[in-house]
Design a protein that fits this description.
Order of helices and strands: HHHHHEEEEEEEEE
Radius of gyration: 21 Å
Largest sheet: 6 strands, antiparallel
Number of strands: 9
Structural class: alpha+beta
Number of helices: 5
Shape: elongated
Amino acid sequence: MDTELNQALNAVGPRLRALRRDRAITLSDLSATTGISESTLSRLESGGRKPTLELLLPLAKAYAIPLDELVGAPQTGDPRIHLRPISRHGRTFIPLSRRAGGVQAFKQIMPPQDIAHPELKTHEGYEWLYVLSGRVRLILGEQDLELLPGEVVEFDTHVPHWIGAIGPEPAEVLNLFGAQGERVHVRART
């Protein structure tokens, strides 16, 4: 049992380093996100420091992955991802990806809104949106668009915009959000 435990603990550091590098996150950025010093993170990744729950919990949160995945716990037989919806401003966001940094995927459920002159917002990033059901209004700069199921838009979020469901029913959309300049590349057969 001790050998098995040591093997599991020794595998955590390389797993943490690979995870951070795959996501192109610096030690400095990870330190700022978790509150763990850069030197501790470096020693943890190199195996110079044993992983503890106090260190692993903030890292699992920063990477948005379950703790058992972070430490390489054996499978329990259930491959499903257990999604935790987030509610903001009357909308429900269901995360579909578990990685920190890079493109983030969400299913969004928007209640219908009857707003004549919505307030346009800007923020860092790039957005791709696919309408699953309902009708969606997108105001993007000077454009006022109605999007129907099956329609897709992508835009730089520095352009003032507002998105909302219109009509009698909620709208469901898939959203991909990326860092500024990180566009979604969709390939289709011709």
